[in-house]
């Protein structure tokens, strides 16, 4: 079950979409497109991904009548995008290049000594809550910059899991990765964000 | 015995509750004894929460506008003609 939208609200939205209500479509486009784009970016370059998301919305107008609610609307939309991306990749015979190598980010791995203890431990404790950290505009900009520098595969996994609150198994289905590879993608992306916040807190620089 | 580096490798699994009972216990034992790893886990968790708070928004307005246009075009062609539209 999707966690982001209350089932009653989602049910009303789906009914309105089935009726072809343009206001409902505007709302749904606003709510769901960022996640759909995150899925598409896992597979495709930026402009192809945007094209796929636009095409998918047109597909949804017809397909919504067949939506039976076995999954949440968000998961259903994300699967449509993923399937379309996979078809596109198949037709162009391209593959997603993904590095699932285990271990730590090199910058973090260097901070342990040969015995596996911290050589350069984390110096500061992030003492503020996420919400108060977010009020820092410079940190928010820095986070944007680092998120856009993440490999697409890591960023998509992170977006679907953290921001769009999909369950692991849904992310694995949508992105076509194994559970263990998803764990690698998530952990590597989180380490990069951890290193970024640490540098920002220590130096005030991005 | 679990070392700091081993713990750092499985830190996300610990945060997400994905470890086996035995692994989870080893992490907890290590954390009881190691202040640096407690700080690391706390900071990694804070980074994760920060991401959740940060990435909820930021739709690309230009893309949304283009999608709205295509959707409203498509809706026009699919709607029954007898439906009153503005």
TrEMBL record, chain A:
GO MF terms, alphabetically ordered: DNA binding; sigma factor activity
CDD domains for the chain: Sigma70_r4
Pfam name, any one: Sigma70_r4_2
Keyword Transcription regulation among record annotations: yes
Domain (RNA polymerase sigma-70 region): residue spans on this chain: 29-94
Annotated ranges, domain RNA polymerase sigma factor 70 region 4 type: 141-193
Family per similarity comment: Belongs to the sigma-70 factor family. ECF subfamily.
Protein name: RNA polymerase sigma-70 factor (ECF subfamily)
From TrEMBL, chain B:
Domain Putative zinc-finger, residue spans: 4-38
Protein name: Putative zinc finger protein
Naturally occurring in which organism (per UniProt): Marinobacter pelagius
Organism classification: Bacteria, Pseudomonadati, Pseudomonadota, Gammaproteobacteria, Pseudomonadales
